[in-house]
Amino acid sequence: QVQLVESGGGLVQAGGSLRLSCAASGRTFSSYTVGWFRQAPGKEREFVAAISLSGIVTTYGDSVKGRFTISRDNAKNTVYLQMNSLKPEDTAVYYCAVPSSTLTTARSMSGTSDFGSWGQGTQVTVSS
Q: What is the per-residue pLDDT across 22-61, written as a single tens digit (0 to 9) for each?
């Protein structure tokens, strides 16, 4: 089973940038699509981005398109989320996750509810 640990969260002013990292343990990490999700207090979990095994295919939630970029380095077992032009509404706990199935694609990640592993989350706070 893949274990995930997020880092890189913090407090930033609106318009600023942060880069989140999701470090994975387990030799099969490169076999999985990886996704980022977020959850703000009192709100449902929201899909942020996903990346395919090779890193070629990426998908994004509508609210972050054009501002966030997901990438991965399989040699380092790490997935990144570069967040630019941050807004107060981006404030949330950010989680990375892998699906239960290696067949889940980046394009289907936003709709899946079958996850194999979640990280513990990292807090992102954007001040206005």
A: 999 987 888 999 999 999 999 999 999 999 999 999 999 9
